[in-house]
Amino acid sequence: MENRFETNQAVCGHTVQETKITAGCGHHPTEKATALLSDEHRVIERVLAVLEKLTKRPDAQSLDSWKKALDFIRNFADGCHHFKEEKVLFPAMEAHGIPTDEGPIGMMLLEHEEGRVYVRSMLAALEEVHSDAAKQTLISNANSYLRLLKEHIQKEDEILFRMAEEVIPPAEQAVMLRAFEEHEAQEMGTGVHEKYLKIAEELEVEVG
């Protein structure tokens, strides 16, 4: 996708090996909504690493792991994480003078939609995974999604979240954390966040 805003800053210092999967919004150790979102990025990166390994195994034996990874992406990375950004963080930034329809927020929204297209294509290809054409479609869309999300996460961590921290006061960030928690309870259900954290760990063990 064209016109992505650029960053020349270094990649986040957290490595996949250093990341510790933590509990949901109600148990987060800080009062910064952006810190929680960044922590969720670390969990998503772990599943992206699994997905990258699965691209070398587009076969029936790996079908369950593929399904589990895409379930995580749809329901945690998109349904939980991106929902928090789109319904809570981005409107708060707009209220403090950062426009939604253009600039960094507009680009992030476009990339969310682009990612959903790749995920839908992967899910459709999984239904025909015994076909060579479907395998190629699966791998192509997985690789496109991996490239997109890695760049997307870096831009949010290094640019967008820093912009949010500059304009949104700490007290309001704490209120946003509560809004995140309410979303998880209402839209996902009690314990579902933790369920997907466990799925991320299970995938790492299964795929190696």
3D architecture notes:
The chain has helices at 33-54, 63-95, 103-126, 132-167, 170-188, 192-207. The chain is mostly helical. The chain has a single domain (30-207), classed as nmb1532 protein domain like (Four Helix Bundle (Hemerythrin (Met), subunit A), Up-down Bundle), CATH 1.20.120. Helix 1 runs antiparallel to helix 2. Residues 1-23 have low confidence and may be disordered.
Query: What letter string, H or E per element, gives the SSE order?
Result: HHHHHH
Summed up, the helix count is 6
Largest sheet: none
Overall CATH class: Mainly Alpha
Please provide the count of β strands. Answer: 0
Q: How big a fraction of the residues is strand?
A: under 5%
CATH superfamily membership, which one? nmb1532 protein domain like
Integer average pLDDT? 85
Q: What structural category do the secondary elements indicate?
A: mainly alpha
Low-confidence stretches: 1-23
Gross geometry: globular
Radius of gyration: 17 Å
**What count of structural domains?**
1
Q: Looking at CATH, which topology would you report?
A: Four Helix Bundle (Hemerythrin (Met), subunit A)
How much helix is in the residues?
over 70%
Going by CATH, the architecture would be Up-down Bundle
What is the end-to-end distance?
A: 32 Å
